[in-house]
Amino acid sequence: MTLIDCNEFRKTIGINFSDEDVMKLLHDDFDKSYSVLCAVIAELTRYAMFDLSNSDTSMSPVHTSSLNNWVQKKTRALLLPLGVSEQHIRRAILCTMGMKSYTQDERQKWYDSDRWHTKITSSGEILRVGDGYNISMPDRLIVIDDDLVMLISSKPTLFVERELQSHFDDFKKECVKPNGLIRTISRKGIGKSNIYQNQPLESFIGIPPEIYELLKSNNQSHLPSKLLEFVRNQGGSRTPRDLQNEINSQPPDFNYDMKYCETERFWFNRNVILNSQIMQYRLIKFESQYAANEYFLPLPEKETTPLQWEASTMSPVGGVKLYPVEPKLIRYIMRILAAPGDKPTIKVNKDRIEISHYPPASGKRLLMIYGAEFISRGVYRIPRGVEELANNLVEWNLYRRLDDD
Q1: Residue 103: which domain range?
Q2: Which pLDDT score is estimated for 63?
Q3: 261-271: buried (b, 16+ CB within 10 Å) or exposed (e) per residue?
Q4: Fewest CB atoms less than 10 Å from the CB: which of 58, 168, 303, 388?
């Protein structure tokens, strides 16, 4: 790739990539090129949202299939002439756009690693609203430190730069820089301006409000009891016999599956027998062909003191009730109720972190905020604030620091 090619690429995409970043696109190792590939795809997604949703009167929702097709065509048109391989382009698109259309061979080779990458829908710039449609989210800033803010906007970078130049005489294009799926802005160019709305970090990362209220408590040792109190207060419980009767009333062709999650490490891997003994304090997943997955937490009708949530002993079904749990809460519940040896771990090694388990959605956004660069499964290089990131993952995602043992 020549210098002219690099300059033409930067001019076309509208982002001031460094020469080093542009050359990463041609790296033989997909993981080393992905940080720039995903930044390119994210920028093209912004152009797609503007192009496909900008009607005469308003910004209309964009269907996911239209969005994906637009981005795929433009990505290939832009990157293939530069010498980026078709395989890397396809893999980056599948990974960044969260598409499921892997071939069987691609799924075997790529999927286990690719699921650790953050998807475009986690960036906060667009929102998937249901029925396959997406909308642009409001522009906002998240303060990272005194020198840097993170921009969350579905506007293409060129549009943002023009907007900022019209407000600030000292603003320079190099103040806006790509950072994987998102962009950062140097505060030297905009000061403490309120041109965009500021959003608190805790709000952006999207911890479920019910869990946030529990986690911000100063006494973490009370988390299990507070969580169980919250689950009970949600109501909607049923006995194992009630659920079995509902299953029995279904048509003869009704197929279902019920499994325990004994630990997050093994997920849901042990069958539940409703008319026998049942394991308390361990999530149950109920699958059927007629509805979305349902999740239940079996709790004793009369709580014992002290709590026995770590033991997860089998007990007669007669003394147990099944409490419904929202899917967005299951990772947090598993981690709060896990025995110490089963909790997911995090380790800091210079400018890298190693996490043993895939994070919840809030953890993906934390990694994104701190510019995490994927190295290998569970391993990320953190260019700034590695200790602060690790502390946030411990506090908000309930990881256990190995180097604190």
Answers
A1: 3-131
A2: 94
A3: bbbbeeebeee
A4: 58
